[in-house]
Fold this protein.
Amino acid sequence: MFGRSKKKSKEDESILLIDDDQGQLDIFATWMIAVRPNADIQTATSVKQASELIKAHLFSLVISDYSMPHAGAGLEVLDAAIQSGLSESSFIMLSGTTDNLPDSVRLVSKGDLATLESAIEQTLT
Amino acid sequence: MTDPEQAALEHHAEQTRQLEQLLIQRQKWLGDASHELRGPLNAAAMSLNVVTRRDDLPDGVHATLRTAERHLLHMSDLVRDMFDTAKLENDAFELSVTADVPVYEIVEEIAEEFAANREVLSLRSVPDRTITATLDRDRMRQVVRNLVSNAVKYHQADKQATIAVLLHRIDDACFEIVVDDTPNGLGMTKSDLEALESGQPFWRAEAAKTVASGTGLGIQLSRKLVERSGGQLRYDSEFGSGTIATIRLPYSLRPDTDAI
């Protein structure tokens, strides 16, 4: 969709983080604020909640856990994001195990903070 | 077919179905357990990472917290490697294979990831950009990352790592990815290489133990992943000079053969 993938300044950045574990999600959001202090950070703990936010909001970046709780739930978020016009390049999947992920998805191993930060920087700049 | 023969066939089919179900359950459990164990470790590391970004920490605190963060991430990687090893040993492991993967992207991505590491003096990637292959992109990335990570970690004292990552065509059937950390690498002795070839998980060279932390799982896991991909992982090494790790892979996985 036109305008969805345009580059934004840091002040315009809006980032959606999705993880079904509320405690880990809170820490993730705190980390993201430290990494991108000027971005608008929103969170969701389920595919349904994430899908609703994606429909209602234009996000610069969506980062989703892969297993929430079942393996592959993150792909449902990806589907919702693409259907709402987000480009695949604005989506990052986090996974502790990495079996059976489609090649088109940008995957970062959960816990690999250096790679994640680099992927975020590449996506948003 | 007689009734007893028919019954035996049905019994056999039922046992096969139950066995397949058990394997699926085992694979799911291994994946779920890894996920559940790594989650808290990663969250703790992330919390420390947030704190270490502050510039008002007292002397020594920053380094201490960074050490704690590294150990947590190391534990997380250990959990992943243990579960991957268990999956491979139990045959509860599937590659997610795709066709026409541009292998140079994997090489360049990993080279870029480690190039800025302070332990690295130079990291040169020389990939043949025409090579595409049918493989599990993520698992191959895991293997190359493991080899380059080892090259970064195990260099001689008072020297920085000099690493070359090459990707080149061998013939119409296969290609090679080479990670070469000579001449500044730590290297392995002949007996180290023999022990490495024995395939024991958790084995580490004595000299390596004095240089950096590690588990010895990654090196064996890498070999198994390459072999599962129909290829071979070979090490040529000289103590005090470095190691050349060579992954030889077919362009396409041949289901009728185990390895090239």
Summary: The two ends of chain A are 19 Å apart (CA to CA). Residues 20 and 68 of chain A are 5 Å apart (CA to CA). Chain A touches chain B at residues 21, 23-24, 27-28, 30-31, 34, 67, 71, 96-101, 103, 107, 109-115, 118 (CB under 8 Å).
